[in-house]
Amino acid sequence: MNWSEQVVLVTGGTGSFGRKFVEIMLKEHRPKRLVVFSRDELKQHDMRASGLDHPSLRYFIGDVRDASRLERAFAGVTIVVHAAALKQVPACEYNPFEAIQTNIMGGRNVIDAAINRGVHRVLALSTDKAVNPINLYGATKLCAEKMFVQANAYAGAQDSCFSCARYGNVVGSRGSVIPVFMEQRRQGRITLTDPRMTRFWLTLEQGVRFVVSCIEQMHGGEIFVPKIPSMRLLDLAETIAPGCEIETIGIRPGEKLHEVLVSEDEARNTLEVEDRYIIQPSHPWWRRENWVNGRPLPEGFRYASDSNERWLTNRELRDLISPSADEADPVSARIPA
Question: What gap in Å lies between CA 22 and CA 101, rounded to an integer?
Fold first, then answer.
């Protein structure tokens, strides 16, 4: 893909993912135009003031709930990364209608606007919580995955394709437990829900690079899952706050003991390549020759954080945490002129 010919838009562009995506796009890929679509004018101002200001960059205020605003924003756009969502599990549980309006109806608006405006490729971000969901956030992301996969049939003969990228926890992102542990260690006490708990981890940069590669390789209809390491939360707490008291408070409602990125049922339609799994849609329009180099998974396969082959060591975790400890680090020196 020649990114210099593309007009790229990212919804939720002022969030943790959006900022890193914009930074890498400007530094390495230099699209013809890059649009940050979000609803918070202050965050857009802060992004611009931090150094993310470039002739090819546009800041567009809007909400994914507003279908007409999306259609206006998508004019001339060739690639959309849909990162906008309500993501805090407790907030979604307390405000279910709001979560549905943003995560499900907002996804529908993105699909409709992309088809109406002739966007070539749309990649929607998903989460491990969409697999066998036990909270509303996961349920809304499962619905969104289903919509974006089936949008390939909804588009008909039009040259628009839709796929999803599903991955686990992002080091240092808003809502991550790592900033919580860093704050708690000042008081000398860490609260842990369950010492057996495991989680998948990747950095913001790894997440962005994975999404970029998915856009370059997508046929439309896949759910891409990266091969990423796991870590026990007890090891995480002891690495971040050595010597601190650790208090077990019990698993909260809507929380899982372990994470799953590919369920046993999904594995039957999943292929493995070197660095990722590709969950294929079980629809008649999908062409099996799209991923001829992919290997089918063994019977009973399940990609879960507790049975992962790859585990983070304490030293690897410390190396991951260090760059994310100061999110206010200016990025202007890394943006091309």
Answer: 26
38 vs 105: CA distance, rounded Å: 16
**Cβ atoms < 10 Å from Cβ of 186:** 9
| Tokens read off for 306 | 């507790």
pLDDT at 177 over 90: no
Q: What 3-state class would DSSP assign to 304?
A: strand
> What Cα–Cα distance (Å) separates residue 213 from each residue in 65, 206, 262?
28, 11, 19
**Where does 128-160 show beta strands of DSSP type E?**
none
pLDDT at 337: 31
Residue carrying structure tokens 């063994």: 298
What are the sequence ranges of the domains in the chain?
3-168+201-228+260-298
Contact criterion met (CB below 8 Å) for 308 and 128: no
Residue 129 annotated as catalytic: yes
Candidate list 129, 141, 227, 256, residue with the active-site label: 129
In tens, the pLDDT along 68-118 reads 999 999 999 999 999 999 998 889 999 999 999 999 999 999 999 999 999
- pLDDT tens per residue across span 252-306: 888 899 999 999 999 999 999 999 999 999 999 999 889 999 999 999 999 999 9
In CATH terms, 3-168+201-228+260-298 corresponds, of 3.40.50.720, 3.40.190.10, 3.40.50.150, 3.90.1010.10, to 3.40.50.720
Q: Could you give the maximum distance between any two Cα atoms of the chain, in Å? A: 61
Q: Residue 313 is encoded by which pair of tokens?
A: 């060591």
